[in-house]
Amino acid sequence: MRRAVYPGTFDPITKGHIDLVERAVHIFDQVVVAVVSADNSNKKPLFTIEERLSLAKLALENVEGVEVQPFEGLLIDFARSVEASVILRGLRAVSDFEYEFQLAGMNRHLAPEIETLFLTPAEQYGYLSSSLVREIASLGGDVDSFVDKNVQLALADKFQRGVQ
Q1: Would you call 145 a catalytic residue per the annotation?
Q2: Could you give the number of structural domains in the chain?
Q3: Which of 43, 81, 131, 149 is catalytic?
Q4: The Cα angle at residue 74 between residues 73 and 78, in degrees rounded to 5
Q5: How high does pLDDT run on average in the chain?
Q6: Residue 17 is among the residues annotated as catalytic for this protein
């Protein structure tokens, strides 16, 4: 079975993420969306790991061949534990490339049996990022065209309660 891991904080999952997963399931038998815990990231997520897992599962529930799991620790260790042969990464712009290239090189050094595959988003999602979605939502902007309805509602709830 050809299995890929698509890691990220997914804070929140966007239509860009969903697009990438929908295209990846045509390449791989299974795509494991690996939601990184807050302890494993230098970011401070808006949503808890449980909320991010739930939102990702809801957003991807109609996509065959997808599994959503939490992970912490080294990505290559997680990839090995789910028997993935590929780490899937999205590249939106040239500015993403240098960092992603470094990660791919380090992962190749640590786990030469695991490849990294870069996919670019569909044109309408090339500018989209979770941080921009959070910022727009925090200022009361409409994020409907950027995220799944469940994510939109969760963002509205967070910011209506004054969580920032």
Answers
A1: no
A2: 1
A3: 43
A4: 90
A5: 92
A6: yes
